[in-house]
Amino acid sequence: MGRYPSGPKSCVSDPSCDVLITKVTHPAVVTVFCYWGFVLLVCCSFQILKLWLIRKNPVKPVFLREEAPKSSRPATGSEGASRFQGQEFLLEPEEAKELLVTGYTWSYFGEFCYCVCCLTSLHWLALYVVILFDTYNKCDIGGIDNLCFFGNYFIFGTYELNAKVFFTVWWLSVVWYTTWVLFKGRVHNWFRLPCPLSQATVAFVWARDREEILSANAFALVYIIRRFKNIIMPPDAQGHFEIVDILETASGKRYFLFEGLRVLVDGSQISHARIQVGALLSDFHQSPTGLSAEDSSNRLEHVGLNKIPFEPEPLFQSICDELFTFFHVYQLIMYILQYWNSYLFVAALMTCIVLLSSSITIYTRRRSQYTIAEITKIKTDAEVLRGGSWTTVDASLLVPGDMVRVKSNWLLPCDFLILQGSCITDESALTGEAMPVQKYAAPNVSLSYQSQGNGARHTLFSGTTVLQAGSSGEEVRAIVAETGMNTSKGQILSSILYPQKMIFKYDEELPIVAFFLVLYGIVCFAISIVFQNHAGAQSYWVTKWIYCMAISRGIFCLNPKRIAIAGKIRVFCFDKTGTLTKEGLDFVGVHCVSKVENENSVFEPVVLHEKRDIENTTVLHGLATCHALSKFEGIFVGNQVEVNMFKSVGWDFYELDDRSVVVRSDDGKELKVVRRNEFDHARATMSVIVQDERDEFHIYCKGSFERIQELSKAGTLPLDYISTAQAHALEGCYVLSLGYRKLSPSVSPKDVLALSREEVEKELDFIALVLFRNELKPGSKETIRALKEGEIRPIMLTGDNAQCGHYIAKQSGMVSSHVQVLVGDVVKERCITSTFRLVWSPVKAESSTHRSFSEVLARPLSTEEILAQHIKGLEGGIIELAVTGKAFNLLRTSEAMDRLLLHTRIFARFTPSDKARVATMLRDRGLIIGMCGDGGNDCGALRAAHAGIALSEAEASVVSPFTSKDKSIESVVDLLREGRAALHTSFACYKFLIIYGLMFSILKLCAYWYGIIPCQMDYFFIDGVAVLTLGYAMTLSYPEAKLGKDRPTSSLLGAENVASVLGIWIINLCFLIAAVVMMANDPNYVKWPASFSHEASWWTLSDNWESTVLFFTMYFQFITSAFVFTFGSGFRKNVFNNHLLIGSYAGLVILFSFLLLLPHSSLTSLWHVASEQFNRLGTDSPVWILYQKAGGNPSPAMPLRFRRNLWLIIIASMIGNCLWQKLCVDGFIAKTIAKNHPSKRPTFHL
């Protein structure tokens, strides 16, 4: 067997072979044509029938608006105070969903048509198998130049007829598959009949998209695309859909599930299946005996089983969803071209790679689905009060309104409201906070109930664990508030499974890039036809078309995933306590007061926390009793602030059977807490009533110093009360106030319990400031410094007061030492108790250099004065702003907060929903923001930010996209470094693929001009080695160790990316032209005699100088682009640290340098290197044989002198690429241009 295939003969030329199909009237051909006509006929007939029925009985979609659940927002609160009764996580309500539902029903005719269409999709593959079987039947398999290139065409007889059939089938299948993918999900519904919902078997549910566009400063073309998109599909019509089955319960109630929520179908009406047990806390106390069996059965029919309806999709669906995409359909149609065009083994290799990649994607997707399914499943029993008696049922049968008995070590299957007793729970599965949380019975009062607002302290959340139910044998009862997807866990999982769509700059520019690539491909297609005709090679028109289609191979092979948004973050928000500072607060001591006759009280010296120093017994008793602690297995449970405070007095406590708490000192003195008012956000206080050993009653009330000021008698407050409290805060203390009142001896225990909370917490005697200190975490200062050096503005979102926030901001370096901070707060007008105004006042004078400035600001300023007189100071960073929650919400009523937003550093006294609102406002300004919190009351902000990182020990935190299990704030810098590196890597791979497409198109155009085609080994090393190995190796570059000032570009059409790609492409073309000119001027060069070749026999078209010059020049340029695009640019480590890339690149450079420079050998012959004398006497090249027979003379091989000069040109091209990228794109030239022409974006002081 020779080097090239010598057989088999075509069936037409072989007398021993019978051609199966010789004419169009052959039964097999007629059968295929009849089948096509049948498919067209039945599909059109059904659509005509469908249109007639729609005209006869029009069906209108049913509209349903799902209002977002409202969440209560406390009027005021503090970070430390909010932790008295455990972490309270608050999910910011999403926008209302609007659904349009259309009913459809099936028919035998429609189902038959759909089955025919599915069969047609398979029949195209069957036809391809027949065509390829005809193409390769009895083919030769020898060396690399004889790998089953053609067969004997025993079915169609000749290559020409085979090509016509393939051309026809290929185009029809392209249209078919493209249409199927374009309307994926709707095809089956095309063959269903619209009908009223009362008769429907499936529902077509459309929901409006919730999108966020992140590219604020877009190119003009992007705005054109947006307008064009809005013209074609108005914003109100932009949405997503799902076709769902309409199911029936045992009693005949109809419903469907959409995005996990159950929607009831009642005739032509639809409604959400949700039962609200009560709007007020008192409503939940109306059914102490639970539900009857009949009521529970009816409710179960209404809301369904208590489970989150998520199951991993079937394997077949996963495969279809992965493979039926435009990307894979494009690969299919292009690889089929290669299969047919004698690239059988190369196409098989590429197919295996695609299938392997798809298999990995499917495996990863299904593994994630199984992980989520495990999270959603809760298998447990529950003791339920049904019909007045207790019974044990499966937890999936629980319904809203069921009364259950709570037990210890119970994984909660749904949301409950405690009506009797108390619990200690572990909420780390939801909040990421591993600290046990105490829950109490909800009072029977007419207050609104919000599970994630004011009712959180009474609510047991689904997915959390009850560590201890009651104490001393106490029975704990709770009522089911929500089940299934309506629970808190269900809402969080819903936000994960059905997230808001974010449209990044990359996404909007990708269609523009695709358009230009298509335009470029069309131009290349036309040029290639001209070039092939110019070369004079003998070819059939289908062959020319196949080669022209191949010119676009690689251009569209872009399957971009969502890039790292974290790489573009400009503002990073931080919670204070537990994030910037250490977990919990250390108890420092108390600042007591002493009474002066006929005058206000005065402060005494600060007393340290040792109990022997606290001589004021009233204060000591307040510290021992005014808390919400409990015990679990001998450990104090509650907020660490109160734990540390109670431990400092050295007392102990135990709980009685009646749930009252008795505290006991070392010397045996006991105080009984007979009543405890839990912390209330709206009041910012908690209080207790204590009975001493003489049966006298005392009230202790603890809360923010501002609130205790309002509740205390004026004469008991020192004149410097506020200034002293603020001074402690400025020194880094968390300040609470303690008030006291002694009840009359005539008050009975019954009277004590009958007092309202308002009566308890009034006319207090202020007795002390309780001081805690919150110290910075070791890495906080370095992290803030790194962020500022990385051109990222850090801000603080805290529930604490502004003074303490100011201290931490100064200590961490968030606010520079020379900067004056103005605090905006809402104060009452003098003499007008019902009127409030917003004023700005300095925190304190920072140094003598700013004394005159502080004197100017000694008078509180209005917002108008700040904007008019001090805006330059704000823009220059001389002044920073802090704003309280009250002031923030007041400023939001006008445009003032928008103007001050980027100048505000500290957001103090902020509730969880306020924090989320700040994140949303920053997003609306076009900024990419991050949020770092402890996963507790920062949940809303963590979800609102583009990149939220929760400092959590939870194994599977669902609070935010990122979790730092070691609770290190330094993880923020790691996230940003990784994000920038990932973003830069994504664009490097994008540019690598673009250069691949551009260089491949030039290679093909040049080949068509000369009438040549590179050998199979060349293609194997382009597609199978360079693209895969180098493309993968490029992703392995690690991020730079230090966060730099610059952020990587996020624009495909930005100057940096365009200059990088076009610059390298032009350099490559210049050196390619130099190599071709040098070849044409060499005296030993003989032009390839294309007129003696046949393009269908492409394996014979690489025995020439042209193939060697073109392939080696472009291959070196191509692999060099992978090396060049992996330069770190300040975002990734030096390219030489990427060992796989350097090893692969160096190996390929060395290998192909040797192939080019070494003399002819069996190794070089695999690549058809022109060091071999192709045009020699007795050559085995079919083209050169014909050339010599026509009178042509033999010509020498490519001499070493020429190959050395060609190698030097290649090396110069590689050096040129490196210099362009390093000096112009990443170097001082680009930086100079960027400095002189900065991008338009919001500016602010870091």
TrEMBL record:
Sequence intervals crossing the membrane: 28-53, 112-133, 165-183, 343-363, 510-531, 537-558, 993-1013, 1019-1038, 1058-1080, 1109-1128, 1140-1158, 1206-1225
Pfam family, one: Cation_ATPase_N
Any one annotated GO CC term: membrane
Organism superkingdom: Eukaryota
Gene Ontology terms: biological process: transmembrane transport
Location within or outside the cell: Membrane
Name the UniProt record assigns to this protein: Cation-transporting P-type ATPase N-terminal domain-containing protein
Primary localization class, coarse: membrane
Membrane topology: Multi-pass membrane protein
Species: Selaginella moellendorffii (Spikemoss)
Single GO molecular function: ATP hydrolysis activity
Keyword DNA damage attached: no
Family according to the record: Belongs to the cation transport ATPase (P-type) (TC 3.A.3) family. Type V subfamily.
Keywords: ATP-binding, Magnesium, Membrane, Metal-binding, Nucleotide-binding, Translocase, Transmembrane, Transmembrane helix
Limits of the P-type ATPase A domain: 378-496
Domain Cation-transporting P-type ATPase N-terminal: 277-333
NCBIfam families linked to this entry: ATPase_P-type (TIGR01494)
UniProt key word Membrane: yes
